[in-house]
Amino acid sequence: MLTLPPKVTPATYDRLAEIGAAAEGKALRIAVEGGGCSGFQYAITLDAAQEDDLVLSGGAGQSVVVDPTSLPFLADAVIDFRDELIGARFVIDNPNAASSCGCGTSFAM
């Protein structure tokens, strides 16, 4: 079965450029861990890429990385940065999630 990589919006790469992630040798790491109120939760951090990570590169040398264990959970997901009245944050729209919690950081498959 073919696993489609996640998609990253230009707004995500723009935000990474604003905060100078690449200048510090960092990428936006998206990982899926067990836990949260729905069974799985996203871990979003700034971290250096590891040898076995999938690296998604955008403009100005900005990158998003996903470890091999998390990749199947994020197949065809969209990683976005949103700056709204309720706050600015990275958001994952995941078509694989059967349900999610109200805060958007926890999901079930």
Automatic annotation (TrEMBL):
<dbReference type="Pfam" id="PF01521">
    <property type="entry name" value="Fe-S_biosyn"/>
</dbReference>
<dbReference type="InterPro" id="IPR000361">
    <property type="entry name" value="ATAP_core_dom"/>
</dbReference>
<dbReference type="GO" id="GO:0016226">
    <property type="term" value="P:iron-sulfur cluster assembly"/>
</dbReference>
<feature type="domain" description="Core">
    <location>
        <begin position="7"/>
        <end position="104"/>
    </location>
</feature>
<dbReference type="GO" id="GO:0005506">
    <property type="term" value="F:iron ion binding"/>
</dbReference>
<dbReference type="InterPro" id="IPR016092">
    <property type="entry name" value="ATAP"/>
</dbReference>
<dbReference type="InterPro" id="IPR017870">
    <property type="entry name" value="FeS_cluster_insertion_CS"/>
</dbReference>
<dbReference type="GO" id="GO:0051537">
    <property type="term" value="F:2 iron, 2 sulfur cluster binding"/>
</dbReference>
<protein>
    <submittedName>
        <fullName>Iron-sulfur cluster assembly accessory protein</fullName>
    </submittedName>
</protein>
<dbReference type="InterPro" id="IPR035903">
    <property type="entry name" value="HesB-like_dom_sf"/>
</dbReference>
<dbReference type="GO" id="GO:0051539">
    <property type="term" value="F:4 iron, 4 sulfur cluster binding"/>
</dbReference>
